[in-house]
Amino acid sequence: MSVASVISVLDDDPYVRAALNNLLESRGYIVHTFASAEEFLRSTDSNDTSCVIADVQMPLTTGIDLLTQMRAQGSATPFIFITAFPDESVRARALKAGAICFLGKPFAAADLMQCLERALVAGDETIE
């Protein structure tokens, strides 16, 4: 039996966190939700995360800043970005920083699940 992947959802909107939590748990994932990058970094759950799904625009530390910080610390955790403002220059920055996907809100659940599958495969390849 395989162990369920742990997905960390970071979004300052509690409704987005709840919706993603419900979607991902219904697909068998273990989900941890956080209202900010700082809350995520303070959590011990950050070490066990198989993938981070983060809003781009959050107070204090943006999702892209978090990804950059984690990469600088040697973390290869896959990132998927979601945003209500899918600006092309921000998308380019996110992908250059190492994001697997960049989705504009609202997005289809199937699109997110496809991104998540790609992210988890990429994460497995990093571990090997």
Automatic annotation (TrEMBL):
Record-level GO BP terms: phosphorelay signal transduction system
Start and end residues of each Response regulatory domain: 6-120
Entry keyword set: Phosphoprotein
Modified residues (4-aspartylphosphate): 55
Superkingdom of the source species: Bacteria
Pfam families per the UniProt record, alphabetical: Response_reg (PF00072)
Gene3D superfamilies the UniProt entry points to: 3.40.50.2300
InterPro entries: Bact_response_regulator (IPR050595), CheY-like_superfamily (IPR011006), Sig_transdc_resp-reg_receiver (IPR001789)
PANTHER family: CHEMOTAXIS TWO-COMPONENT RESPONSE REGULATOR, STRESS RESPONSE REGULATOR PROTEIN 1
Protein's recorded name: Response regulator
Lineage: Bacteria, Pseudomonadati, Pseudomonadota, Alphaproteobacteria, Hyphomicrobiales
